[in-house]
Amino acid sequence: MWTTTRTTAEMPRLFERGGDLISFAGGLPDLDVLPLEEISGQLSRLVRLGGKITFQYSTPHVPKALVPAIADLMDREGAHVPAEELIPTGGSQAGLMAVALGLASPGETVLCQTPAYPGATAAFRTAGLRLRGVPEDADGMDPQGLRETVAALRAEGRAVRLLYCNPTHQNPTGRTLSQERRTALIAVCQELDLLIVEDNPYGLLSFDGTCVTSMKALAPDHVVYLGTFSKVFAPGLRCGWIAAPAHLTQNLRSTTEVMTLSPSALAQSALATFYARNGWTDTIDGYRRGYRERCTQMADALDAELGADGPWEWRRPDGGFYIWLRHREGADTGRYAEPAARHGVSFVPGSHFSVDGEHADGLRLCFSHVPRRRMDEGVSRLAAALREDVSGRDLAGDHVTRDAALREGAAR
Question: What pLDDT sits at residue 393?
């Protein structure tokens, strides 16, 4: 059967909460920024005046009323995409699945920036694709390493068509590829006939308000761009888009239609109405301000609890949701999940972001949704957990697997 010939692809359990747990696991936005009473009034009016339309099936096209809202977001990073090249999705995750199913064939290889977003690797594996990480240097994905990797794969007779990346405030590291590095990578991809898949949920969430030019803006005919309203507005609406080169739009549109039949007309109308009345600037600025404050608080607490000379290293990001810790001596961070659960705190071990077993020495902390009054306490609990088991004792003797410990911590 089809289901027995493919490796099971699983996502870490990120959003389970409860009890006294302080969760640094799931990348939830801070919805306190949203003017909920105003949005409630807008939704009420939508349903009262247009419920027979917004509660009905829709088409696999971005409605005219929503196009300006998308165009505004993409324009802030320099991209200008015709409406006919936009394809609606149920968020970036649905876009990833559409790309995996619509632009590649089972058995082909997708090149990935690593550490990689687990939702992307799960989508590609679910579609029967192989994954290969791109070599990196101090500035991120290495253009020459990319060239050599593609040459080696093609010499083995393997088809390679896609390069997946999350170039701005990356999940999980928070790092951003420089303009120079983007340009160099695009040149290699054009040389090797690779299509770039640019996943960009955090691109507008820089702490200082600046925006880096998107890869889509730099090479519109070589980039499939995945956009979402989940991080600049709210994830519960499950609404996003694909901006694809014209020759790929029909294939992707057909794939998304098979996947979902119809995007949510209510969600699309709610977003279009909010944008028409409010624009994006105040909301995005509010998110940036809140995340800057939380990131600073978490980083300061890590400095105080773990110090600069201990076994852990990290860098302060300049945007997004995450801080990425690495163990200097290469310890597998999965072994700290059970101590963390006992201390009432959760994180995501680095192995979840691997393509082929790498990055187990890292761990991801999300600061975006943690109440500021609990941030310092959460970091203190984490530090206590990370100070346990420093000898490298195998926790398997306690009958706790890495994933089970993570789930246990998330469920508390």
Answer: 47
Instruction: Encode 241-273: b = buried (16+ Cβ within 10 Å), e = exposed.
Output: bbbbbeebbeebbebbbeebeebbbbbbbbbbb
State how far the alpha carbon of 335 is from the alpha carbons of 108, 172, 254, 344, 394, in Å.
34, 19, 44, 15, 8
pLDDT of residue 13: 53
> How many residues in the chain?
412
Average pLDDT, whole number, for the chain? 92
pLDDT digits (tens, 9 = 90+) for 231-280: 999 999 999 999 999 999 999 999 999 999 999 999 999 999 999 999 99
> Which residue matches tokens 């696999």?
60
Residue 284's nearest CA partner among 93, 80, 76, 91 is 76
Domain 12-27+283-411 belongs in CATH node 3.90.1150.10: yes
Q: Is 293 exposed, middle or buried (0-12, 13-18, 19+ CB in 10 A)?
A: middle
CATH class label, 50-278: alpha beta
Which residues are registered as beta bridge partners of 88?
241
Tokens of 251: 């294939």
- Per-residue pLDDT tens over the stretch 162-194: 999 999 999 999 999 999 999 999 999 999 999
Q: Number of helices (H) and strands (E) in the chain: give both, helices first.
A: 13, 15
Question: To which H or E segment does residue 379 belong?
Answer: helix 372-386
Q: Where in the chain is the domain with CATH 3.90.1150.10?
A: 12-27+283-411
In whole angstroms, give the CA distance from residue 215 to residue 220.
8
Element (H, E) at 87: strand 86-89
User: Which ranges in the chain are annotated with CATH 3.40.640.10?
Assistant: 50-278
Single pTM value for the model: 0.90
**Which of these, 331, 257, 256, 289, lies nearest to 95 by C-alpha position?**
256
